Amino acid sequence: xxxxxxxxxxxxxxxxxxxxxxxxxTHDGNNYLVDCGEGTQIQMINYKIRRSKISHVFISHLHGxxxxxxxxxxNSFSLLSHQQELHVFGPSPLKEIIDIQLKVADTKLCYALHxxxxxxxxxxxxxxxxxxxxxxxxxxxxxxxxxxxxxxxxRKLILDKAKEYSIPAxxxxxxxxxxxxxxxxxxxxxxxxxxxxxxxxxxxxFCADTKYDEALIPxxxxxxxxxxxxxxxxxxxxxxxxxxxxxxxxxxxxxxxAGVKKLLIGHFSSKYDTLxxxxxxxxxxxxxxxxxxEGVCFEI
Amino acid sequence: xxxxxxxxxxxxxxxxxxxxxxxxxTHDGNNYLVDCGEGTQIQMINYKIRRSKISHVFISHLHGxxxxxxxxxxNSFSLLSHQQELHVFGPSPLKEIIDIQLKVADTKLCYALHxxxxxxxxxxxxxxxxxxxxxxxxxxxxxxxxxxxxxxxxRKLILDKAKEYSIPAxxxxxxxxxxxxxxxxxxxxxxxxxxxxxxxxxxxxFCADTKYDEALIPxxxxxxxxxxxxxxxxxxxxxxxxxxxxxxxxxxxxxxxAGVKKLLIGHFSSKYDTLxxxxxxxxxxxxxxxxxxEGVCFEI
Lengths: 300, 300
Known about the structure:
The first copy, chain A, is of the alpha/beta class.
């Protein structure tokens, strides 16, 4: 499964039982945490996120509502005997902020923690199943979005057909890699005769905090789903602009221009006690919009 | 009213809907926050604590479960336009930890923040109504308890009696300060004839994290209420000792030896899903024991 679960959808100050930004991207049994506002570890308990499956944490920027829960999570992982290595990506000086707090508490983590500072668009993870990249967004301080792109999967073997043509099992992996098979008498069994096309890899992009900026389009173009902030309703465009945030219609406009399939909106200002208008305004421009409600898991 | 409201009563890792350490001491309309584990600002919302009334924060030590919520609180105060000065007391390098996080976020607080490092037993506040002192406890890292002592109030004027003896109103304040009044003919009106004794000032002591240590007794002797940690039940004395924590019976024993009136127990280990045994064990030694349950306000 490739999905994202929302742990926090509010901006700045917790309010109306909404929490600061955090979400978990799940892919192939791994949990990737994106941002970690205060209380994220408690939200993980509330929504039954398996903390032991978290191998990577991505911090978009060092405004508190996006990372004040990180140090508590790192600490708790150690108290809970987290087994695997943990990689944390975020802007400088994240490592120094973590280190001073571990040092003063005389805390020796029980797992290997690797903090990687990011400072430009770059590839952060590249395995045979997934690529994670970061790219700068347009915010008041240094800030990054993160894209999660599944690798194209191997073609699917049609076992009965492969047997019918007497293709030896040892050749099956090469069939999945789209090779043709040549029988002893020289007959060519075309790959398409014994395999089906692979599902194309899907793509999710977390656009972090940002004002409306078409420079983001190359990073999100054609994505299956993006998350874009909508701190304000559209009548507060000027305020949004001055604070390096976006409105409902701006997020929807960007999703439309980039030709994405689905838009999640969040990072709602604490001035709003209800969210219906956010959904309605964005859908005027981009109907496939969903509110990033806490606890909801969106399949990508 | 002089009271303490519990916001978090768990140790180390949040569990069973229990939160890390925090409590609010209310006196004469002011709120004094004692420790500030992650999520404290959300607990304040849950329990309707008036954040605008907080003028002082006391941090016992720099283990995360006692202060990871502080930076978020300081940040939110600014976003919520906190008006009054805020004084934070805690061990070094608390100020540096706060400063680096404000600086990287380019945050200018809208109120005056004063961070005071504490490093020995000392008086932190001394007004005409309240004295707050800190004292070292016996923990793995530098750690302080805090005592809140009401000043003795002025004696209470019996107005009818004062009028009966024709004492001029201008002298009433001196009567409250226990002076006798001498009439023109030399007759002495003894103070006790026109005033009643003042209520003695009450005392609450937060003993922070500590192993059993009778060196604490001078600081808590005769208190109306103390909070003492009971991380473990009494069958885990060795574990408690090795981790610089205390058990139920140890907390109760100390309360008894110090002749306090009431004992609150908390900082429960996440290994326990229920708390009844904590209460039962402590009450065997010290019957006036209460569990420091979250959301409960205990009048001192």
